[in-house]
């Protein structure tokens, strides 16, 4: 009963994470790593038990044949069962973020969906109803946003909940801003 009450009183922060476009899986993108780290340092830091991190990874394009989409992962031990099987793309990424949450002492859940990240993130925000959605942003210029699209800009302008967009630091900016 007390655990259920504390679960209700926790502030639920949904953080969308993706893989690095430069290094690929299992490396996190600069933007999602920065947004996650900012969330831990600026929001969760002083009261880890008062928050719950909801980690969403959207795989695009769809069609990789992975069938574990609706499973929820809550601790590092959840991944031990899969150590001997071929891990699907994205599991290593979620494992990295869940491990970081557990090291920090903040409860978490993580899941993978596939589809258009803009649509899926908004759908999942509507479904799980977090208190806030945190997204990383590559800091694209106007022309780059038009050419390549901006998931964070779309989610910021079509919010399903309060949304915070964290832009990469200048020192983390690769030579090509589109890289992440």
From TrEMBL:
Residues 13-166 form the UspA domain. GO terms for molecular function: AMP binding. Transmembrane segments: none annotated. InterPro entries: At3g01520-like_plant, Rossmann-like_a/b/a_fold, UspA. CDD domains: USP_At3g01520-like. PANTHER family: ADENINE NUCLEOTIDE ALPHA HYDROLASES-LIKE SUPERFAMILY PROTEIN (PTHR47710:SF1). This is UspA domain-containing protein. It comes from Kingdonia uniflora.
